[in-house]
Design a protein that fits this description.
The protein has helices at residues 10-16, 30-35, 69-73, 82-85, 91-96, 99-103, 111-119, 134-139, 208-214, 221-229, 245-265; strands at residues 3-7, 22-23, 42-46, 54-57, 60-64, 122-125, 132-133, 147-153, 161-167, 175-182, 185-186, 189-190, 194-198, 205-206. It is built from eleven helices and 14 strands. Helix 9 runs antiparallel to helix 10.
């Protein structure tokens, strides 16, 4: 029998967590495991309304850990993330799936985390400690602890960000791979390129080879070709029931090039 413990604050929940407990956010993945008899039998949840808050401050938008994909779609300051949230499951899933939960979603899920990685988001822990880069959390998710919020930069130019999801079932199927690109520009040249792939490793990963090919350049077909050729450097695409490693490597550069072309056209 599964026991559900409810706390009013994240601090109380953090103290209650142990190896035999699982945090219950939206429950889109956790409850499926519980229903299949493979999840833990002790669930911990929090009712603090702050977890559903979205607050803008200067150049940053702070999303509470419990903010759902539907919440993202209903917030105008997050318009640049609407194309991403819209591709997370159907309406029922979007009403439940949370921002923080997506950070811990196992392969092949985690499309929203891929977008956050490309944007250079920062993660705010539930207990004492300063915000840290999302890349650090993704490298060691098992020891991340509970999350209070995620901070994303407020994009002044939505054209600097692009997202593409590749799936066999359109439009809401599980990803063969997903790609998120953030290309801030100064005087027409890319400064601080970030390219992230989902479903190309155990967690979303940055494509550092593609980033090097883009950095300092102006968007044109030659640069697209270089970035596409370097797309899979350092990545570790798996073979699973959705696609093989070979297939993912073959199509990753093709889809990156298409996304870059779409971003150039605006």
């Amino acid at each position: 029998m599964t026991a559900v413990e409810t706390y009013t604050t994240l601090a109380d929940a953090a103290r209650a967590m142990s190896r035999d407990a699982t945090y219950l956010g939206g429950g889109t993945l956790v409850m499926r495991e519980v229903n299949e008899g493979v999840g833990t039998q002790r669930l911990v949840r929090v009712t603090d309304p702050a977890l559903r808050e979205i607050r803008g401050s200067g150049d940053t938008v702070r999303l509470g850990a419990g903010v759902t994909m539907a919440d993202v779609l209903n917030h105008r300051d997050l318009a640049f993330l609407h194309p991403v949230a819209r591709l997370i499951g159907g309406p029922q899933v979007r009403n439940m799936a949370t921002v923080a939960g997506n950070l811990f979603a196992a392969h092949p899920y985690g499309d929203f985390a891929t977008a956050l990685l490309a944007l250079g988001a920062r993660v705010v822990p539930a207990v004492q400690g300063s915000a840290r880069d999302i890349e650090e959390l993704l490298r060691d998710r098992d020891r991340a602890g509970l999350i209070a919020a995620v901070e994303v930069p407020r994009l002044r130019d939505a054209r600097a960000f692009g997202f593409r999801k590749v799936s066999r079932v359109k439009p809401k199927g599980v990803s063969v791979l997903s790609i998120a690109v953030h290309l801030p520009r100064e005087s027409g040249r890319i400064r601080g390129a970030r390219v992230a792939f989902g479903a190309m490793g155990p967690t979303p990963l940055r494509a550092t080879g593609a980033e090097r090919a883009l950095e300092g350049q102006m968007l044109d077909t030659t640069v697209f070709d270089r970035a596409a050729a370097a797309a899979t450097e350092g990545l570790a695409p798996p073979t699973d029931e959705i696609a093989t490693e070979w297939y993912r490597r073959e199509v990753a550069g093709v889809h990156l090039r298409r996304l870059l072309s779409e971003m150039e056209r605006g």
